[in-house]
Amino acid sequence: MTQPQLASTPAPHLKADMRISTAMRDVMIALLPISLMAIYFYRGYALLLIAVCLVTAAVTEVIFRKLLQKPISLNDGSALLTGLFVALLYSATTVWWTAAIATFIGIGIGKELMGGLGWNRFNPALFGYVTVFLLAPFLPFLNVDYTPWEVGVVSQATPLVMMHQGMEMPAWWELFVGFQGSGAMAELSPLSLLLGAAYLFYRKHIYWQTPLSILATVFVLTLLFGENPLMHLITGGLILGAFYMATDWVTSPITGKGKVIFGVSIGLLIVLFRLGLPPTEGVAFSILIMNAFVPLIEKLTKHPSFSEPKQASAL
Amino acid sequence: MEVKTFKSGAHIPHYKSYTEDKPITRLSSPKEVIIPLLQHMGAPCEPLVKVGDKVKIGQKIGESEELFSAPVHASVSGTVTAIEPRTVPTGDKDDCIVIEADDGPQEFEMKQVRDPETVTVEEYRECVREGGLVGMGGAALPTHVQTSPRQPVDTLLLNGAECEPFLTCDHRLMVEKAEELIKGAELKMKSIGASKTLIGIEVNKPDAIEAINKIIEGRDDMEVVPLAVKYPQGFKSHMIKAATGRDVPRGARSAELGCIVRNVGTTVAAYEATIYDKPLIERIITVSGPRVTKPGNYIIKIGTPLAHVLKECGVEELEGHKVVNGGPMTGLAQVDLNAPVVKNTTGVLVLPPEMIPEEGFTDCVRCGKCVERCPVYLYPNHISTFSEAYLLEEAEEWDIMDCIECGICAYSCVANRPIVQMIKKAKQKIQKKHKAKQ
Hints:
The complex is a heterodimer of chains A (about 325) and B (about 450). Chain A is mainly α.
């Protein structure tokens, strides 16, 4: 037998199919129902915003990685996913450059300048979104009223604001299935988000600990404070935050115990923001704040090695 | 049926259907065998023959005076044609004795020389040592070293988990040689003074469990422990934990935990060495792969070149394929088909190009799969990042030295990081550093 050229990469010689790109693609798939809902309600406005954010995301990533002399990594899909997230964090009638700037900041500064995917301490989409939110009072062009064409979009108070001001609320099922006045595109249909989340559970991309501990904490605390806990669960960014943002691999704790601590803390902060402070952006702030504590949580929850000698029982 | 296991680990597609129903058959004897002088953990043998010598099948041809060593034997009758460095399964060139087979019969004659009922512990130990027995499940530790434990041992634990995908040689051995296995276990129990034998078998081998249960029916000193089908169930530490519930702290030898773990193949080989004076000159090897025309569980002579094995099994196209000596999770990718099979070769696998994982990796994205699955409860994510950056002290703090190199982390990594490779390299560096300090 003549000696053929053999492949000789080291063990293990088998690999699971899951790659970063598969996971990112799956999250995009999970976001399909809510994106379609947004497009259904807001038509061209939603399409424009999503398209602008996707393009900005891709362009930003390419620019920064070129500048940092790193290989282009658009294939892993993480930049596009961040773009989609940013778009969904905005209401459809937001002026497009505001969302584009948030995407640029999220990916350029929040991710690439922090070392790239894996090294970013904060969820890039939330980082970009909140940065713009904090800058907006000083930069008026971020708040331009922008309605280039008519699409029967009603501008009204979001359910969270309505709840805060004791206004009469729409029926819970309407809020749950799809409610046009819900503010951010991602907030207009908790049902669509949960459908996507079910897919993510099924594909084992997310685990129950984080979302469940956030939801349970919010539920119990709002109940204790005499609020309607169900309304709190289905309004605002809570579902998006609990199932999609706080479960981000890079910026959340790895172990089950850590995920629970992380989730309960986020839940606490959310209730604090919602009941004690102006009711907007509580979820985003809460998650970003806890992102910063992930290394500490991991240190505190480190489990011992299989080989660690057990403490001798008291004699 | 209570199925035991350990925490963590993972289910890996097991690809055993190619060969799990294939009875053990004998592969043709090769024209030439290449017998490495080092096929075990420990000191290499010194050759006892020289070029031109005639040797007989089963004749001892290499030996060492060190305790941590095991002699090697001629697996064919014929003439020594060379004693020189040849490619071995690790890819290195090590000293080997090359024997050209003669035209006579090449099968070892199985003649009973001792009675299993009357053989003494001393005779058994001597036969195991003289027969060149090593752990045939992969570790290749000289078997006689552990046949005389200093601590009292209550349990003999037979390892029939065979948790690596593709491999079915232990499975078939348990089905077809259950009687020899149990007789071998009796000898071993006597030699270590154990009162009980547990036989750990993953439940994907119901016929093996049944075959053994039939023989040990009514005995209260032997018991099959059904184990969950999970990788790496067959690693020694995890076998002990699952079957006996005992913790396996770092540095503890299994004898200190009151049990000795023994691969089922080794147990049968030790029995044959004692009763028939048959040294370890051949073993059952699973030859498998999706495109192998004649996959199976073959008795193959130690020293048989891979090229001969593959040709006999109908493998023709190999360009771009991967040939693995051992299981797909921990086995060695071969670079040279002239390399021989050795005492701890459990499988010869041919993986076609589409099964070979792509190369190239990115930074850890902290998905947590490796932490979730690590059977030693380590943080392969941190350890690999530390190892990559040569932060050896940090890697040690995160217990890198406890790693059993099972490969589950690299198997699971979504960033395709060669985590085990990084860990192995860092471990070697750390060991060197510690040695230098001493």
